[in-house]
Amino acid sequence: MYRSEDHRTFAAPSENGMEAPGEQSASDVWTRVKRRLRAELGEDIFASWFGRLELDSVIEGCAYLTVPTRFLKSWIESHYADRVLAVYRSESGDVERVSIGVRSTLGRDPAAQRRVSEAPRPAPTASTALPSASGELKTPSLPAPQEARGESGDLGGAPLDSRLTFESFIVGRSNALAHAAADRVAHAQNGQAIYNPLYLHAGVGLGKTHLLHAIGHEVRAQGRRVIYLTADRFMYGFVASLKAQTSLAFKERLRGIDLLIIDDVQFIQGKQIQQEFGHTLNALIDAGRQIVIAADRPPADLENLDERVRSRLAGGLVVEVSALDEALRTSILTTRVEALKTIHPTFEVGPSVIAYVARAITANGRDLEGAVNRLLAHATLTGSSITLETAETAIRDLVRNREPKRVKIEDIQKLVASRYNVSRSDILSERRTAAVVRPRQIAMYLSKVLTLRSLPEIGRRFGGRDHTTVLHAVRKIEKALGEDHALSDEVELLKRMLQE
Ligand SMILES: Nc1ncnc2c1ncn2[C@@H]1O[C@H](COP(=O)(O)OP(=O)(O)OP(=O)(O)O)[C@@H](O)[C@H]1O
């Protein structure tokens, strides 16, 4: 299939460490890169995958690009990383690496984003108070330039966000165990490793990252050495150490630390990197160093990772943070409103509005934060107090966004066509070459599982085919999914893309 597991290597084997070009020329280069990508890949593919890719900055030979969602990031990284880097390098001799991060809505200024980790929580102003539809409010994983010179920079460590502490973490039924485990690890006697590794997993926005940062702050405050890495940074650090041909392996260099925290471990990909990850885990655990890991799924479901690594990850304490219950959502909202009141004394949100928001927004902590920001924006922009009606209007899009998206057959056909480099009319045509048959069957299968359309209706929408043809396609793909992991991953990604 079109997978390229081992292509997370964004660094080119170049020696060029030249300074970044100026703002103007960096954006000129970026315009040319996009133009070439569009010409090479075609309008459909470009629009599907690169339309929302933006240049953030070029620093010390690395082009930092951003996309609005994690999914898009992981898709581009796993399918197009080499292509993007090659095009970039052909347009600019100054760029030797490409890094893709998830965009924050805290502001586009990367310097401002980096400062978030040092500055107290910024008061949401009208411009910062309106998160994106996804509610994404996190800082992207872009390295701070000053880090590149420090010890953690050598290892690619990411800064800790000063807002994410134990004090600001609210404990409730769904996260009590995770909180207790995090607290024990952070306050371990003589820094002795316990529950090694501590593995936290949860769905989006339920506070994993918050707990990881809280542990990091606490342990650092005790004067111990902490490295916080996202999966991206782990991979980047590894690639960089390979590139620099340092005599010491990455794991050896990490040995000097007391606590290693790795976030979003589900994104670790590539055989060599996985192996290094496994070696790193073994080396650190054997040396009695504490490891804390977070992921969006339990260790057994990390299909990308080798069985031995999965079992090592599961060998400490595995704790799930479940969906935030209503009482917890209410506390998070109340606390957040109280915090904002210290900056905006006139900001009043009554208990009935809090209760309404806590019931309406059930998905995750990020959306709760987004909801409070919207209420504040509403209050400050209109100067009126928050009633149930205004609250309903202010958070409408957050509530609506959570309803499952209705997927259209036409969109399925377009996406599948662009993914497999055929045209939509090929999919609808009578052509029976393998290059068209498989994508057509996948598109039919997706139409069956993602829409409520009947088999005859799907047949009609696929160039007037009979319902038995659709049934045959659905069965065939179902069978193939059970046997072919690569296909199953591919189809899963297509599903997520369509539903995003
Ligand atoms: N119990 C909590 N108390 C206070 N804030 C919380 C709590 N749970 C989540 N949040 C807030 O919700 C937002 C999302 O949390 P966080 O980034 O930690 O989620 P996550 O589980 O790492 O999600 P993702 O997998 O998407 O990164 C953050 O602003 C966080 O501070």
UniProtKB/TrEMBL annotation:
Please provide the record's keywords in A-Z order.
ATP-binding, Cytoplasm, DNA replication, DNA-binding, Lipid-binding, Nucleotide-binding
Q: Which domain of life is it from?
A: Bacteria
| Family in the record | Belongs to the DnaA family.
**What protein am I looking at?**
Chromosomal replication initiator protein DnaA
Fetch the HAMAP family from UniProt: DnaA_bact
Could you give the domain comment from the record?
Domain I is involved in oligomerization and binding regulators, domain II is flexibile and of varying length in different bacteria, domain III forms the AAA+ region, while domain IV binds dsDNA.
Q: How does it assemble?
A: Oligomerizes as a right-handed, spiral filament on DNA at oriC.
Could you tell me which residues belong to the region Disordered? 1-25, 109-156
User: Where in or outside the cell is it found?
Assistant: Cytoplasm
Q: Where is this region: Domain I, interacts with DnaA modulators?
A: 1-123
Q: Which residues does the annotation say bind ATP?
A: G205, G207, K208, T209
Q: Tell me a GO cellular component.
A: plasma membrane
Residues of the region (Domain IV, binds dsDNA) are: 380-500
